[in-house]
Amino acid sequence: MSGLLSLSSITPRSWQGYAALVLLAGALLLWPLVDAAPGYGVGTAALIFLLLLLAIEADNFPPAIGVVLLFLGAHGAAWLLLAGITGNEGTARASFYLLLAAAWLLAWRCVTVLSALRPASRWAATALRLIIPAIFGAWILIIWEAVTRGAGIPFILLPPPSAIGVRIANSLPVLAADVRQTIFKAVIFGYIVGSGAGFIAAIAADRVPFLRRGLLPIGNMVSALPIIGVAPIMVMWFGFDWQSKAAVVIIMTFFPMLVNTVAGLAASGHMERDLMRTYASSYWQTLFKLRLPAAAPFIFNALKINSTLALIGAIVAEFFGTPVVGMGFRISTEVGRMNIDMVWAEIAVAALAGSVFYGVVALFERAVTFWHPSVRGG
User: Which residues contact 333 (CB under 8 A, 6 or more apart)?
Assistant: First the structure.
């Protein structure tokens, strides 16, 4: 294999390229990639090396062409490595991991080049903001897949992402029912009620000083209560259906909104408040025209924090009693049955739902607080 390719004519221009070239040389010296026969054929192995060498040379091309070569070379080589290790689980040798590391370094270089681009159009800038984290996330899955298959990690300890994806595709009706029960009932209701109640309580605490002095210390204490202690009590109070889970979500989302809104209402400057007084503005006029706009970043920070807390609270609460549906119920049940791929499928769906929820709140924040320096500078 070492006679198929020559590395002497390759001239990388980045440290990732130099490191990848060293890893390629090490892979050649430590050939073959797997212990099993037939393993990787000569043609497949040569194509992997050629793709990686092409990506290393990408810095010698214009940036637009170079980033395409980096993307195709790194991801094409990774795909061939994963395709070859399937059926040869647990037989990967050091050269396999060296080539995987080289592909990862070149993908890193691809992201670096993409981050340095300054597109002229707004659509191109939006596409870049989506592509860069997508590549980063894809490589988490690639490395996960390669290590679990290459090292032959037992399925019960950590299934590969491909097996989890197959389980998701084969369990869509079950997953959809769990999402409806957990998210569209407990999470949404609890999130709206908890965040809304926290906001109203913050306005009351700002208006009445003794409430502020009494509520905030209690809020700090209640926010430290463990979910596993609160959830069984809520189940006893409100029953096994989604209402008890919504109660847990309300408790978890109330105090972050309260604390952040109180802090945000104090964020407006003294000069602005004095100006409102010179205009003879009432408390409510000052609140709506000055203090709430100034507190908007704090309020949206609480909403974003609550978007993840709500999902966590609902899922954990379902561990302590629920109808035979729900994400937390499914996780606890399938762990007992040793269906680990189903457990990871639920975790993946929960992570996706939480990310979408957070993204919707973030987009709404950008639309509402477009005037804020943190948004204008983004």
Answer: none
Gap between the Cα atoms of 152 and 360, Å rounded: 39
Mean pLDDT, rounded, for 29-46: 79
- The residues with which 92 forms a beta bridge, in sequence order, are 34
Do residues 194 and 215 lie in contact, with contact meaning Cβ atoms separated by under 8 Å? no
b/e for 173-208, b at 16 or more Cβ within 10 A? eebeebbebbbebbbbbbbebbbeebbebbbebbee
HSE of 347 in the Cβ direction (CA atoms, 13 Å)? 14
Q: What percent of the chain has pLDDT above 70? A: 93
Distance, CA of 211 to CA of 234 (rounded, Å): 26
Rounded-to-integer distance, Cα 188 and Cα 271, Å? 39
Tokens of 135: 């590549």
Residue type, 121: S
Please name which of 199, 133, 37 lies closest in space to residue 358, comparing C-alpha atoms. Answer: 133
What would the mean pLDDT of 33-55 be, rounded to a whole number?
A: 83
* Side chain identity at residue 63, one-letter code: P
**CB-based burial label for 126 (10 Å; 0-12, 13-18, 19+):** exposed
Lowest mean pLDDT of 45-49, 132-136, 175-179, 230-234, name the range: 230-234
- Average per-residue pLDDT for the chain: 85
Give the integer Cα–Cα distance in Å for 21 and 56. Answer: 7
Cα radius of gyration rounded to whole Å, the chain: 27
The set of residues, in sequence order, having a beta carbon less than 8 Å from that of 262 and lying 6+ positions away, is 202, 205, 206, 212, 216
**Could you report the per-residue pLDDT of 296-354, keeping only the tens digit for each?**
889 999 999 999 889 998 998 888 877 788 898 899 888 888 889 899 999 999 999 99
Distance CA 37, CA 59 (A): 37
The number of helices, as runs of H, and strands, as runs of E, in the chain is 17, 0
Please tell me the distance from the alpha carbon of residue 373 to that of residue 193, in angstroms, as a whole number.
Answer: 30
The mean pLDDT value for 353-359 works out to: 90
Amino acid identity at 143: I
